[in-house]
Amino acid sequence: MSSCSPTLAEENRPSKLVAGAKLVMKGSIVAGLIYWTSVEGMWGDSRQTENLYYRVMATIAPNLPDIPGMEQLPRIDKMIHGIFEGYNHAVVALMHVLITVPTVISQKMGEILCPESREIEDDETTK
């Protein structure tokens, strides 16, 4: 017999109509965002994307504080370099996690399922 708590009871689950309405709402939000970004030029060619960048910066730039020594906004090539560096760091960290997680899980499962073998290992290391 399992000591785990059961999932939500049937009476606490939302009806299929409510679940369907939530799905339709989420889908319409995603579709609307994709349509809006497409119309603005985010998914177009590089010229349209650069135009979008300059329009966004023109909207934000008047609200930026005056920073001494900063005559212009950051350039796209420097921003892209930072994005690639962050992406590469994230990929390396993810690969490290993917490599170490199975080993750690195997060790922890061994400790849970066979605690007496862990005690034997501890006795051997203390000698």
From TrEMBL:
InterPro entries: Mic13
Keyword field contains Membrane: yes
Membrane topology: Single-pass membrane protein
Alphabetical UniProt keywords: Membrane, Mitochondrion, Mitochondrion inner membrane
Entry's localization field: Mitochondrion inner membrane
GO cellular component: MICOS complex
Highest taxon above the source species: Eukaryota
Database matches in Pfam families: QIL1
Subunit (UniProt): Component of the mitochondrial contact site and cristae organizing system (MICOS) complex.
Family that this chain belongs to: Belongs to the MICOS complex subunit Mic13 family.
Function according to Swiss-Prot or TrEMBL: Component of the MICOS complex, a large protein complex of the mitochondrial inner membrane that plays crucial roles in the maintenance of crista junctions, inner membrane architecture, and formation of contact sites to the outer membrane.
Protein name: MICOS complex subunit MIC13
Gene: QIL1
